[in-house]
Amino acid sequence: MAKQQLISLESDSRILAAAERLMMTRREYLQFCAALAATLGLPQGADAAVAEAVATKRRPSVIWLHFQECTGCTESMLRSEHPTLEKLILDVISLDYHETLFAAAGHQVEAARKTAMQENKGKYILVVEGSIPTKDGGIYCKIGGKTAIELLKECAADAAAVIAIGSCASWGGMPSTGPNPTGASSVAEVLGKPVVTIPGCPPNPYNFLSTVVHFLTFGALPAVDHLGRPKFAYSRLIHENCERRAHFDAGRFAMEFGDEGHRKGHCLYKLGCKGPETYANCSVIMFGDAGAGTWPVACGHPCIGCTEQGIGFAKPIHAMAKMKNIEPSVFLPRIVEEKGLGASLGAAAVLAAVAGAAAGAGVMVTKNLGLSHQAEEMEKAKKEGSKATESTEV
Ligand code: FSX
Ligand code: SF4
Ligand code: F3S
After folding, report:
1. What is the enclosing helix (H) or strand (E) of 165?
2. What gap in Å lies between CA 245 and CA 239, rounded to an integer?
3. Atom 1 of ligand 3 has which residue's CA nearest to it?
4. At which of 209, 233, 257 does a domain end?
5. Domain limits at 164?
6. Per-residue model confidence (pLDDT) at position 86
7. Is residue 19, in this structure, part of any structural domain at all?
8. CB distance 246 to ligand 1 below 6 Å
9. 269 and 126 in a common domain
10. pLDDT, position 35
11. 339 lies in some domain
C-alpha cells in the first residue's frame, strides 16, 4: 500500500469503525485487507480499495441453500481458528437465509427466504452447499415440500451471482460417487449454466471470503477457470508449493504409514498423494488460519484430490497420482543430500553422485539426483499413458 494511501486510510473514521467492529486494531485491519488483496492476486494499491469496500459498502444479501452434504462447508467457515475470519465473513455479507444457522424453523424460515429474495431482487448472492439429487424427479432431498431442484431454480432466477461452495455443489462430490443412487448432480448441471465453484471437501473458507470480498470491491466475481474455479485459488498444483516437495525431488518417500520416512516427514507420493494432479491452494494458505493453520499433507495424510472431479472420492486412495508438472516451485529450497544416498535411488544416480562429489560439485549433484528422480517418474507416467508433459505456468 502506498504510504500516502496508508496514512489517509489510517485516519479514516470508517476504517476505524470497521476495525473496532471486528475487534482489530486499525493496523491489523489494514494488514488483513492487504493479505486478502494479495491472495486475490490484485495489483499494488488494490488493498486500499479492499479495505475501503469492506468498511463501507452495503453488505450483499446471501441466501445459502443446503442440499446433499455433510455441512462441512459451513462448519469449516464457522470453526476457523482465527477469530476474525468467520467474523469477517459474517461482517461482509448479510446472511439472510441459512437453514442450519437459523434459530427459527418451518414457515418462519421460508418466509425469511422469500422476503430476502424480494427485497434484494437481482442483487443477492446465492450460495449452494451440497449436490442436487436428480433421479426420480428429485424426491431424495425435499425442504419445505419442495425438491432441491425446484428450490435451486427458484432461488437462482433472481440472483446476481451463484456460488457453488464445496465439491458436492461444484461437481457432485462424495454423494455422486458410484453408483450414485440419487443422481447427485452439480449446481451448474441443474441450472444448465456455468457458476462460480469453490470446490474442496471442505473448501477453504478463506477462498470463499476472498471471492465475496472481490464481489464487494469490484461488483463482479473473480476470474475463473474452465471449471468455474477462481483462478487466484485454483491455478496451481498443490505439489508445486508443498512443504514436502524437496523430499519428492530428492527421492525420499514414506512407503507405509508409520514407517521411518513417514515419521521423518518425507513425501507422501507413494502413499497415494494426489497433490501432483490437484489444483488448489491448500499448501499455501492452509486451513484454520493462514500461516498458523495446517492441511492434510502437513498432518501426514496424502492429499486425496478433493477439489478435483474424477480424482477425489473416485480414484483409489493408494493409486499413484499422474505427474502433471515436474517443475518444482521456484520458491522452495532444494535439499542437499547429506550422506547415504538411499536405496530408492538407482545405480546410475549413485555413480553420478560419486563422480560429482569427486569434482566438488555437491549442489549440482543434488539437483541431478532430483532431476534423475523426476525423469524416472516422467518415464513411468509416460508408460502409464498419462499426460506427463502437460504443465501449468510456474
Ligand atoms: Fe461436506 Fe459441504 Fe464435503 Fe460436500 O463441504 S465437507 S460433503 S464438499 O458439501 O458439507
Ligand atoms: Fe507434497 Fe504430495 Fe507432492 Fe509429495 S506428492 S511433494 S506430499 S504434494
Ligand atoms: Fe483436499 Fe488435497 Fe486440499 S485432499 S483439502 S485438495 S490437500
Report:
1. strand 161-165
2. 7
3. 306
4. 233
5. 57-233
6. 73
7. no
8. no
9. no
10. 87
11. no
Can you say whether residue 305 is alpha, beta or left, with left for phi > 0 and alpha for psi between -120 and 50 degrees?
left
Shared-domain flag, residues 97 and 189: yes
Distances (CA, A) of 47 to 13, 19, 40: 17, 15, 10
Q: Which residue, judged by its Cα, is nearest atom 2 of ligand 3?
A: 303
Q: pLDDT tens for residues 84-94?
A: 667 778 788 89
The answer to whether residue 133 sits within a structural domain is yes
Convert the pLDDT of each residue in 208-242 to its tens digit: 989 999 999 998 999 999 999 999 999 999 999 99
User: Which one has a higher pLDDT value, 372 or 84?
Assistant: 84
Residues 229 and 242 in one domain: no
pLDDT digits (tens, 9 = 90+) for 131-159: 999 999 999 999 989 999 999 999 999 99
Take residue 47 and report the three cell numbers written for it: 488493498
In angstroms, the Cα distances linking 121 to 99, 114, 126, 167 are 20, 10, 11, 27
Helices (H), 61-196: 72-78, 83-92, 107-119, 148-157, 166-171, 187-191
Q: 62 has which bridge partners?
A: 95, 125
Q: Does any ligand 3 atom lie closer than 6 A to the CB of residue 296? A: yes
Counting the structural domains of the chain, the total is 2
Whole-model pTM above 0.85? no
Least Cα distance to 231 among 34, 43, 41, 47 occurs for 41
> In the numeric block, which cell numbers belong to residue 40?
486475490
Q: Which set of grid coordinates corresponds to residue 130? A: 451440497
